[in-house]
Amino acid sequence: MTPADLTAYLSAFRARWQVTLQYRAAALAGVVTQIWWGAINLMVYAAFYGGTSAAPLTLPQTISYVWIMQGTLALMPWGCDPDIADAVRSGAVAHDLLRPVDPWWWWFCRAAARILGRLLPRAVLMAGFAGVLLPLAGLDRWALHLPPRVADAALFGVSIVLGLLLSACITVLLNVATVRTLSPLGANAVITPLSLILSGNMLPLALFPAAVQHLLLLQPFAGLGDLPCRFWLGTLHGPWAAAALAQQVAWIVALTWGGRLALRRTLCQLEVQGG
Amino acid sequence: MPIPPARIVVEDLHKTYRIATRAATSPRPWPFARRAWRTIEALRGVSFVIEPGTITGLIGPNGAGKSTAIKILSGILRPSAGHVSVGGLVPWADRIRHVGRIGVVFGQRSQLWWDLPVEGGFALLRDIYRVPPDRYRARRDRLVDTLGLRDILDQPVRQLSLGQRMRAELAAALLHAPPLLILDEPTIGLDAPSKLAVRAFVQELNRTEGTTVLLTTHDMHDIEALAGRVIVIGHGRVLADSPFETLRATTLSGRRLTAEFDGPAPPLLLPDGVTPLSQGGQVLELGFDPARIAAADLIRALASAADMHGVVLSDVSITRPSIEEVISRFYERHGAAG
């Protein structure tokens, strides 16, 4: 390799490195993810080694929890609507404004429809596998079990619908962030670890340290997984059930309001490229 | 409820963009790099009035500001200053009402849903624009017939050829019978028959329904075929606003005459207002200004010169400079090229 070759490769290295450094949000999100991941691993090991303290969930409950979480994985706001990300990339995002419709509702409906379309088939298949196939195969111990009462199942249904609306609200916010930053990378990098961890998908929220339990139950992502799961397991009753549903509704209202405000401001400042 | 025709009034429109010049050029290391901003004036005082029922071409070189103007008129962009009224509505302030009364086609991007069949896309637009079902059916059938869409109604948009897609886009933009149709480069990338079809359709629409049409294009034949009037934008200003013939006459009025002889072209004492362009063997090319010498006089002079030298003037053709030449010359003259 001649020195001139070396200059070319060094130059390519430097250019790519500078471009990569520009994704500050992604770098920050990466670090935050790794910290959370590490903390969760530590907690799992601590439970494994310590072992004896009274577990907040029984093993069968945890098993059902895990299957529901896996079955409703599509409920997570995985990121900005890919169509919108494309439109941002091509500069066509403002074209949604050509329609005589309110852009927030337009995006919200699209997000909700997309989540539902991904959720339904996956949830049904998962229920078939974990709830029917596993018991038939003699693995009842590892299967998804039905909620203890019909009322719990009904509340679970309501809570899942609220979770879907909540997820759509968050998706619209991610769309707005994508329009603002002109790239879906930052928003998507932040939301994925955040929602997987804070919804209880990685580890049931009940297994987190007692000190943060209240905080964890109040934050919006609980409504995407943990709260519906608790309804399924039948651990929420009376005022607690009402409070859990109210928590979900409150976040939907707050995120709708905030999302509409953010969208309005973003569209006002939208600077479409082009001559 | 037929919507009243829309008069477009644009007064002293300005639009300034702020563009981030990326931190990559900053000497300071991340994360201390500060974003630098650059201001771009896309429009600096554009004014014009468009009467209902007319076809107007909005042209200009790339980056001249015409897309910005179109986006402001479509209600998707706010100007930094200035006033716009389309049929009494301010596009960005009354956006929802305004966009319900206009149809917009962007040649570069599809507004139909990529994965839906054409018919499904139309039905979605029917609901978005709240077109009553019976009115929708009649309108759709007419558009499908005139644009020859019958055979592609059940095909997903992504499977259509560009020509088919553009015809579908035109129908989609007109389902709600808007009195104003905005076309942004509607013939870009189309083959010749598709271009002709689009032009013929737009002309017919304007004639039969009185639809006001505002179009931008880089294909000057669109302008020649369609627009009675052109507004030329360059550097964010209106450089010219006149019928195209006036623009041609004031920019590049010369004619080109090609004469063929049955022997060597005779030497000719050139009359006033004539310039030699090329001479080779039996062919002579001259440029002349019809305001200074009539074509008949020039041809007569050529014929008698041929007679004197014992050859015959066997063929003559006179052409006008191509519309591309006219417009390039105009951009050059205003320093607006590129």
- Just give the CATH class of the largest domain in chain B: Alpha Beta
Q: Return the domain count of chain A.
A: 1
DSSP summary: helix tally of chain A: 10
DSSP strand tally of chain B: 13
Low-confidence stretches of chain B: none
- The overall pLDDT of chain A, averaged over residues, is 87
Assembly level: heterodimer
Protein chains sharing the most extensive interface: A-B, 22 and 34 residues
Distance between the termini of chain A: 45 Å
InterPro entries (chain B): AAA+_ATPase, ABC_transporter-like_ATP-bd, ABC_transporter-like_CS, ABC_transporter_ATP-binding, P-loop_NTPase
GO molecular function (chain B): ATP binding; ATP hydrolysis activity
Organism (chain B): Gluconacetobacter tumulisoli
Pfam family, one (chain B): ABC_tran
Please, could you describe this protein's structure?
The complex is a heterodimer of chains A (275) and B (338). Chain A is mainly α and 275 residues long. Chain A has one domain. Chain A contains ten helices and no strands. Chain A has helices at 3-21, 24-50, 59-71, 82-90, 103-136, 150-181, 185-198, 213-218, 226-233, 238-269. In chain A, helix 3 crosses helix 5. Chain A is globular, with a radius of gyration of 22 Å. Chain B is of the alpha/beta class and 338 residues long. Chain B has two domains: 8-249, 3-Layer(aba) Sandwich (Rossmann fold); 253-320, Alpha-Beta Plaits, CATH 3.30.70. In chain B, 33% of the residues lie in helices and 28% in strands. Chain B contains ten helices and 13 strands. Chain B has helices spanning 66-73, 95-99, 118-128, 133-147, 162-174, 192-209, 220-226, 244-251, 295-308, 323-333; strands spanning 8-21, 36-50, 55-59, 81-86, 102-106, 180-184, 212-216, 229-234, 237-243, 255-261, 274-280, 283-288, 313-319. In chain B, the strands form three sheets. Chain B has a six-stranded mixed sheet, sandwiched between helices. In chain B, strands 11-12-10-13 form a four-stranded antiparallel sheet, covered by helices on one side. Chain B has a three-stranded antiparallel sheet with strand order 2-1-4, covered by helices on one side. In chain B, strand 6 (180-184), helix 6 (192-209) and strand 7 form a beta-alpha-beta unit. Chain B is globular and about 80 Å long. Chain B starts with 7 loop residues before the first strand and ends in a 5-residue tail after the last helix. The mean pLDDT of chain B is 87. Classes of the chains: A mainly alpha (275), B alpha/beta (338). At the A-B interface, helix 1 of A face strand 1, helix 1 and helix 2 of B.
